[in-house]
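so i finally got all the pieces together for this one. its three components total, 993 residues if u count the protein bits. some of the lines might not be protein, just check the labels. i wanna see the whole assembly predicted at once instead of chain by chain like last time, that was a mess tbh
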Amino acid sequence: MRIDSIEKLNRWRAECRRAFEAPKRKVTICRGESCLANGSEEVFDEFKRLVAEKSPSGLAVESVCKTGCHGFCSQGPLVIIEPDGTLYTKVKKSHVAQIIDDTLIGGKVLDRLLYVNPQPEEKIADYHKIPFLARQQRISLRNCGLIDPHQISDSIAVGGYAALSKVLTTMTPQQVIDEVAKSNMRGRGGAGFPTGRKWATCAGVESDVRYVICNGDESTPGAFSDCTTMGSDPHSVLEGMIICAYAVGSSQGYIYVREEYPLAVVTLQKAIDQAREHGLLGNNILGTALCFDINISRGGGAFVSGESSALMRSVAGEIAEPQARYVRSAVKGLHDKPTVLNNVETFATIPVIIERGADWFAAIGTQKSSGTKAFSLTGKVNNPGLVEVPMGTPLREIIFDIGGGIPGGRKFKAVQTGGPLGGCLPEDKLDMPVDFDSLTEAGSLMGSGSLVVMDDRTCMVDVARFYLGYLASESCGKCVTCREGLYQLHRLCTKVTKGEATEADLSLMERLAQTIQKASLCALGQSGPNPFLSTIKYFRDEYLAHVRDRKCPGGVCRSMITYVINDDCIGCLACLRGCPVGAITGEKKQKHVIDQVKCDRCGSCHAVCRYEAIDIV
Amino acid sequence: MSVLRREGIDVPVLCHHEAIEPCGSCRLCTVEITKDGWGGWKRHVTSCLYPAEEGLVVVTHSPELIEIRRNILDLYLARCPQSEVIQKMAEEYGLYKTSYETIPDGDNCIMCYACTRICEVLGKSAISAVMRGHKKVIAPPFGEQPPDCIGCLSCAHICPTDVIAWKDDDGCRTIWNKPFELISCSRCGKKTITREFADYLIGKRNLPRDYFTVCDDCKRQDLALKMGALVDRAKEVAI
Amino acid sequence: MMTHRFEVIPSLCIGCRTCELACAFTHTKNQKPGRSRIYPIAYAPDKYVPVACLQCDDPACVKSCLFDALKRNETTGAVELNADRCVKCMACVAACPFGCALVDDGHDEIVKCDLCGGNPACAQFCPTKALVYKRIA
């Protein structure tokens, strides 16, 4: 059914909304990647089967729905019973029958499937009252977990393409650019370049052809907000791109999705097909003169292909290597034509800026960083997942109030922001407001918004070594400073973790890091030494402990720690049996002993001991 | 960079050659730029790629830039300690030995991309850079004999560190493990270029095939004979 | 606009090789004389003609160069080889029908006559005026 006028769209929207809001009762099962991996597909099928069989009152089989990802990752598979908003966590296929009998038919809440909040420790039944979700302000993630991403009618029901209608009927392209500029929106891909200015530059270049590209590469390990937006609310991204195309004068767009997101590609393609079918993409969108189509371009499995010039080469079918052209891609980008390249989150936010106005958006967040940001919170935190909060929210609130703090009663040590190219921030930076400029000043990056939380059993030198190794292997290899420099920096860092380095090596590393930063071709090289530079800035004493005292304060670097059994040992033989090199001796009910010569410090004994009887010294 | 060269200011280069587009891989020509409207903000860019513009203030030599170039050469020395070209350049910066551990099984390739770029210019693109990061090497497709190579040796000659191996032996040239037949002069038997290269030039530039069957020495000889015949005939006519 | 023309009157050549010496020394680099771009060749016993680049109207060397290293200088009329662009592939050496692109092993480069940029040394020194650089405009 082709929607070739705004009136038709409004009528269709009314129909969709009626259908979406009609069912008195509804059961939604989350089918985000993480829940799927934990069996939510089975749960969904089981619900369909048993609801058909048992017919609980007021619940039709059609009202058993699937949604996209909520970003509440450690609690899946998630099932929500509407209209109460009861949330059941970690639901298995075997639980379904009881949920139907006790909750849907019996009207009782199943305690054991409820979410357990860590601080204060309590069970919470209502989805809307869970602090992790309640304390967020979801703009780019507004529909994630709310709708079925495979049904365009769901997106329409919740307001999809309303902003586009407004743009096409009441705004000129210049007015759209001005509105985006007024909102102070800065690119959410990491560089934070003013979006309005980028669109204005592209529109201002004389050209017959312009391109709009959405960067869905998100190769930062630990970032998954774009994955979720693409896979759970694809139409918000499409709508943002169409609005951009209208504003700058483009008729061809691409969404570049990393190779490792097959599910996002399926969902996006389906959304594109449905949009085309309904006349929301292609020729004469909504019956106006606007012609714009979108194709998906797959990545090849590299981190560097997220860099804008490398990405455009990849879309053009060449090897993804960054080019140092010193000309903005808004002026000369894909195929040397003016191109707007923006991140998934940026495009997903545009429709909201149009609908609710630039002033509303600019009032959120801080003066220089307006709006909200979706963070991927991972690592040693009780509630890992997606957290969207206004810019300027302190790290402490994100990690402790929303994230639920550090598990196992351990202490916070550091948080890495912005992915491998970002830096690690220590405890005294916890009250820092999270926005573009504060993070850069502190020696880190906003990046794609990943926050990796580390506890006190982390060695910061080992962390630096890990990220340097990653970056050295992801370097495209074109320029010598990144290719050879990061390789050597990683080698030296490994030496430090092995206790074989000297203080002179540390000075050498600092000198090398400076040169890599200044002389590299692209951001991978220029920011590559950040893991090292930020850790040596804030945790210098750890580096010195490694080289001067040959000690690892975090208790991680194998050659510098010893495992010792203390007096809490009850002689249960568990570690003895678990030791792969037979280094533990002892009798039942007698304190065991570790032979330090045989021990290779793998940590298996420590992991297996239930009495905290093994210390890392 | 052309402006710097025009003014006689030298910055060191390794990956630069007039016949190919600059690519900024060696980073040695890095300079520091600033401009009046930038509020004191400075930027490090490679002079081979950054377009010259009115009002640009360029610093080509400063303690910071010397340090950067020295560190770059230090990295190169770790990768190709045997390369005389790198050793000589490093010595100019006071570096006689690398500060790092040398790469095991290294060769002298500095990954400047000159060979792949020149092969692209001549229209063949027979070799390219494969793999990523430190594992990156210049290689023919799938490591096999490059089907597009014509044995012209442009890559071997343009290589700043003479890494690409080739051999002319008894009328046969071998490069990238691929054998080529060298054309023998029909007069004296001296070897000229490969048959494949000649065929390529003949086809691409519409040159007569018989230009390539004789070597340059014999062609000059022929020219002398032709001119001599004209001289003699002119003398006869005069008489 | 070409201002001069290089003329060869082969009947006047006595094979003295002064042109060869003049050319070699004019192109000295690093204290080593270059390979001479011109020299007399005997076409019969005691009969010589000077052989040098004819600066063809439709140069095969220019056509053969895939790197645009050969280009005509519009003032002198000579076809010049830009050493900065040359990669020594030998295409011009093989293609020139008169063999006038030469391999200079001593300096490891390809060379050809460039009329010394407008003042050919060989014409200056030729004792019999078999080589003349004549003004035509």
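The first strand of chain A starts at residue 26 and ends at 30.
The mean pLDDT of chain A is 93.
anyway lmk what u think
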